[in-house]
Amino acid sequence: MKKLFLTFIFINMLTACGSDSETPVDTPVEEAMYFPDNGSNVWETKDISTLEWNEAAVPNLLNFLEEKHSKSFIILVNGRIVMEEYFNGHSTTTPWYWASAGKTLTATVTGIAQQDGFLNINNKVSDYLGTGWTSAPAAKENLITCRHLLTMTSGLNDAAGDDVSPENLTYVADAGTRWAYHNVYVKLQDVVAQATGQTWESYFNTSLKNKIGMTGAWTNTGTGDDLSVYWSTTRSMARFGLLALNKGKWNNEQIINETYFNEMTTTSQNINKSYGYLWWLNGKGSYHLPQTQLQFNGSLVPSAPADMFMALGKNDQKIYVIPSKNMVVIRMGEAADEENWALSGFDEALWVKINAVIN
After folding, report:
1. 223 with 163: CB under 8 angstroms?
2. Among candidates 312, 314, 294, which has minimal Cα distance to 304?
3. Which of 60, 76, 204, 273 could form a disulfide with 284 if both were Cys (CB 3.0 to 4.6 A apart)?
4. Are 273 and 287 within 8 A, CB to CB?
5. Angle between helices 58-67 and 345-358 (to 10 degrees)
6. CATH, domain range 48-358
7. What is the dihedral angle through the alpha carbons of 308, 312, 316, 319, rounded to the nearest 10 degrees?
8. Domain spans of the chain?
9. Which residues contact 52 (CB under 8 A, 6 or more apart)?
10. pLDDT digit string (tens) for 304-359?
């Protein structure tokens, strides 16, 4: 009898185990990342109702954007368009300027040129441009590497205006000892052109723009040497943001290697914790702003996710990349409040409105 009882228990255990293994488990399947086709304006969308967002807060966000002189606004989640709005006569085909948000294009293409073996960001700028590209003493000029231009630590005078001709690039401090927001970064475009033997725009087009299906062109501002600004549609800006969300990968092609991309979007020096290689970084303990040597405590955009990194341009051109939410946010337009360099009070105000929708 005892043996029969034990056998009965054993059979029941086996049955229970088999039953558990066959019971379907209700686990959510992670949505695959989407990339729009190159050469097409077709872009997959995702209904906001599937995200459990607060749809009642959307009109308030859109009214705020329109009141603040926006021309366009896009939110991507996993690459799909969740919100896409245009204001004041703007449309999907209308180009607008990136301003300093385009610095991130320069940083990315510099990394691609290094990946292709044309240059090394640790080399002196004068190795590519020759001596005399600044008015600094030769010994001081030779301290400046391409990495210093990427990190805004050239030590050159940031108070002399946008002109980047040699006579306007004067010495203030040794490279690496002072952070100052300066248009001298544009010399990296000359470095890439010299190193590759191509024009900047030609190499940009073949190494980045065409590979991710962007449209647009560089337009010279007429201020100093080669100071150019990128103009494109909002969707082209969104394509670049999507590339950044995927750490330099587009579909199955690694456009820019992940090691460089991670360097580009993490703190790059000890002075401004909130700056990478021409990208702004949220969630750090302190930050510096253009045109001042003051240090401010706290995060750049307190209401935004701490892992967000940003391409910020004059008069509130914005690319926000938020890895923790698989999200990209784009804003183009006129200055929301008043003319500004990059970060403005609009960033925090906008994220309060965005949070009301997505949280």
Report:
1. yes
2. 312
3. 273
4. yes
5. 160
6. 3.40.710.10
7. -50
8. 48-358
9. none
10. 999 999 999 999 999 999 999 999 999 999 999 988 888 899 999 999 999 999 99
